[in-house]
């Protein structure tokens, strides 16, 4: 097996990674919101996840943009929180995941200080 094929196969068996792009999927009931993780490089997603879905994403295409469907994994926010907080300082993290990590950490700090209504 070539090094590239081995690397792709190894990525597919790992749990969720900060290298995946994150997006929040709101729900009418706020506590039911979920995080969706998708691979902007079209790599395989980790196995064993129950929350597989398709997202419509917008990507750069020449001087414009195009919509496309991308496979994604969705997880409850409580399960995504540890990954998001770690992604904030991970140099390999996708910028969107690092940003959601910073937002999650800020929300945790506000909660700890009793600043949420």
Q: What is the number of helices?
A: 3
Low-pLDDT segments, ≥5 res: 1-13
Helix/strand order, N-terminal first: HEEEEHH
Side-by-side strand order of the widest sheet = 1-2-4-3
Overall strand count: 4
Percentage of β-strand residues? 25-35%
What best-fitting shape do the alpha-carbon axes yield?
A: globular
Rg, rounded, reads: 16 Å
Largest sheet: 4 strands, antiparallel
How are the SSEs placed, and which strands pair?
Layout: H1 3-13, E1 21-25, E2 34-38, E3 52-61, E4 64-76, H2 77-87, H3 95-112
Antiparallel strand pairs: 1-2, 2-4, 3-4
Helix pairs in contact: 2-3
Describe this structure as you would to a colleague:
- 34% of the residues lie in helices and 28% in strands.
- With 117 residues, the chain is of the alpha+beta class.
- Residues 1-13 have low confidence and may be disordered.
Brief rundown of the structure:
With 117 residues, the protein is an alpha+beta fold.
Keyphrases for this structure?
117 residues, alpha+beta, four-stranded antiparallel beta sheet, 28% strand, disordered N terminus
């Amino acid at each position: 097996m070539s090094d590239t094929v081995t690397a792709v196969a190894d990525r597919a068996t790992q749990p969720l990674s900060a290298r995946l792009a994150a997006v929040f999927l709101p729900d009418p009931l706020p506590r039911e919101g979920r995080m969706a993780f998708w691979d902007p490089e079209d790599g395989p997603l980790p196995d064993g996840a129950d929350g597989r879905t398709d997202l419509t994403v917008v990507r750069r295409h020449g001087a414009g943009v195009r919509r496309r469907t991308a496979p994604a994994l969705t997880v409850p926010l409580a399960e995504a929180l540890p990954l998001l907080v770690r992604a904030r300082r991970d140099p390999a993290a996708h910028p969107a995941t690092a940003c959601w990590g910073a937002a999650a950490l800020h929300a945790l700090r506000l909660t700890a200080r009793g600043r949420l209504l």
